[in-house]
Amino acid sequence: MKWQNLILEAFKRQTQELEKALEGLTEEDLNRQPAPDCNPIGWLLWHTIRSIDRNMLELMGEEQLWTKDKWHARFGREADPAETGVGHTAAQVKAFKAPPVKVFLDYHHTIMSKVDNYVNTRLDEKELFRGYMSPTLKKEMNVNTAIAAQLWHGGSHIGQADYARGLLKGQGKGKGWYGR
Question: How many CB atoms lie within 10 A of CB 70?
């Protein structure tokens, strides 16, 4: 097994969990805060997908799909490549209005297709340790550090969305998260 398969498998598992978190949810579900000043599922997953787009496409040296393919319009947002939700206030989080589940899934799958191609065709050991400057984060980092951070970040927020789904839908098979 090549080490690249480990990276692809980690992203694949995040995708599977993201799909489970979204399964059967309405726009109302996506926008409901589990408690005041808490992030709703829609905001959490938008932030996660936006971060993958920004971080992974930057390290690939490509324009984010958010702006290039106008995903921002499908989310009813501005075309700001730096906006991923980092630094949002409680009021900004509450004002976020999630689109239908299909928009989340289509955006995520489009990004993951690019990530899959990158890992399979360009990510070798030389590339893994290449340094680059993130134009939005304004810091120098290595590709391996960026990928590891993205995997941790995505898994963390998808887990939060799963937990919020459990609070929203209750326990039991097919409802929330218990017994998954």
Answer: 11
Which residues are within 8 A (CB) of 72 and not within 5 positions of it... i.e. 6 or more apart?
66, 78, 79, 80
Between the CA of residue 108 and those of 49, 51, 66, 126, what are the distances in Å?
A: 6, 11, 11, 27
Distance CA 94, CA 35 (A): 11
Q: Which two three-digit tokens encode residue 133?
A: 């400057």
Tokens of 79: 């075309």
Q: What is the CA radius of gyration of the chain?
A: 16
Residue 137: count other Cβ atoms within 10 Å of its Cβ. 14
> Which secondary-structure segment (H or E) carries 66?
helix 65-68
3-169 CATH choice from 1.10.630.10, 3.60.110.10, 1.20.120.450, 1.10.3720.10: 1.20.120.450
pLDDT in tens, 130-166: 999 988 888 999 999 999 999 999 999 999 999 999 8
